[in-house]
Amino acid sequence: MMDKARLFEERMNQRETERQALKEKKNESDNNESMVERVRYFSEILSLKRGEIEHSLNAASEMNKPELPEHFNKISNELQQLNRLLSDSSLFLPFYNIRKAQEQVQDLQQRSIMLEEQLLPKQKFGFKSRKMKSLLKNDIIPCKIEDLVDSVPKKLFSMELYKDNSCGFADKEDEELIMKENVLSGTDVVLTNLKRCRVKLMGAPSTLHMTNLTHCEILVGPVSTSVFLDKCVDCTMVFACQQVRIHNTMRCNLYVHVTSRAIIEETKQVQFAPYNWHYPGLEEHFIKAGLDRDVNHWHAVDDFNWLALDVPSPNWSILEEPDRVVDWH
User: Which of 60, 221, 248, 329 is the most exposed place for a label (fewest CB within 10 A)?
Assistant: First the structure.
């Protein structure tokens, strides 16, 4: 009787395992279909908006001069909206689509600048010169980049999110760098060109951008929206966020709390583990950031360079428990 009961239990466990495997496979398929649908939707919206702006540019040459300032102001607002759409969509778009869309939008911006200078040269000259001088003189743009889109030439335009409420560290080596809640709350944090640095960000920033980091240890509290990594090598990073996008990164260990699937691209030898940093005020910062402690997809990663659905990507893996850091000083 005991043997039959044990056999029955084993069969039930096997069926449950098979059911879970089918469920996970279906969820993965649904996620891939959702990704394709979002890319298709973005392409359609981009094409529609580009057509509207091109129509407005073509119509400018036929308009009376008094009508042109308002007309170009409308074009500028439409370009800003298009840039925001591209920025918001960069989390799920493949890098090729991002680069192609950037080129198309920048071409429209350049055409708008040249046409406005041609049709309204006096009104544009002084305004443009002051802003261009500021851009060439300073490393940090003192106002929002979207306010400058209509006057920045193509070669200087970047999709980087320079904002007036940003903070961070740049061009440091062999230093310990710390920021706390009074500085971080609701800000956009930029870490760039750091080597062998240890960074602690104890607060709830809005976004986090990390670029060109080498041999660094980065400890971050809950980020209310997105984390972006680019060109990071041999780093250990601990962060919590809604979305994470990782590009051109190698040999990094990432301890994450993320409420959606992570995205990697042009990335190799990265390992993932669950977020495990603790500091006074952390729970309060999770609440401020609006992150659900019970939702963490740290082990769910989409590799845009690996299209096979039935074979795991070789570019990322789970960091095994014996190899994880458990005590961050």
Answer: 329
Name the nearest CA neighbour of 257 among 297, 289, 290: 297
Residue tagged 């040269």 (tokens): 121
Q: In the block, which residue shows the tokens 């951008």? A: 209
Give CA–CA dist 247/228, Å, rounded: 8
How many Cα atoms occupy the beta-carbon half-sphere of 197 within 13 Å? Answer: 24
**Hey, CA dihedral for 115, 120, 126, 131, is it positive or negative?**
negative
145-198 pLDDT, tens digit per residue, is: 333 333 333 322 233 333 445 789 999 999 999 999 888 888 889 999 999 999
Note the pLDDT tens digit of each residue in 16-33. Answer: 666 666 555 555 544 555
The set of residues, in sequence order, having a beta carbon less than 8 Å from that of 81 and lying 6+ positions away, is: 49
Buried b (16+ CB within 10 A) or exposed e, 160-191: ebbbeebebbeebeeeebebebeebbebbbbb
CA dihedral 109, 111, 112, 115 (to 10 degrees): 160
Long-range contacts of 153-156 (CB under 8 A, 24+ apart): 153/110, 153/113, 154/106, 154/107, 154/109, 154/110
225: left (phi over 0), alpha (psi -120 to 50) or beta: alpha
Asked if 264 and 303 count as a contact pair (C-beta separation under 8 A), the reply is: yes
Neighbours of 53 (CB within 10 A): 21
Residue with tokens 């003192």: 142
Q: Between helices 95-119 and 121-137, what is the axis angle to 10°?
A: 130
